[in-house]
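Entry 14. Ran structure prediction on the chain below.
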Amino acid sequence: MTCRERLESYFRENAVPFRVDWHPLAYTAQEVAAAEHVSGYLVAKPVIVRCGEGFVMAVLAAPQRLDLAKLEKLVGKPCRLAEESEFAPLFPDCEVGAQPPFGNLYGIPVYVDRRLSEDPEIVFRCGSHRETMRIAYKDFERLAQPVVADLAA
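Output, structure tokens:
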């Protein structure tokens, strides 16, 4: 099962309306925003962080940068950006770097910057560098149950 299929099934089981879009190859979240013709503030960018011995997922809007000190205060452990080689095995159904913001589906705690909660919907990758999904932010929050905080630098 691909990541997109996993998400589609998860959304259907939880009565979440969604939309899938295809676009030219895009590696960065800002490139995704440009390809989808949406504001970068609608694109949810998951950042995988090593905190202590485990991982957490920090989700920010595409133009934002993670403030590691703010995240460390929240989790109470030293944090650093995870290397692709460290986190790729955590998302076996995704192209490297194209994981969705649903860390909960992979056993990873999710923290989201409050800026994303200000818009009615979010756009995010669904396992590939050519596909995105769009759902209501309130549905994302209900399903992922993230800690909402100020995470951006």
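Strands lie at 19-22, 44-51, 54-61, 79-81, 110-113, 121-125, 131-136, 147-149. Will compare against last week's run tomorrow.
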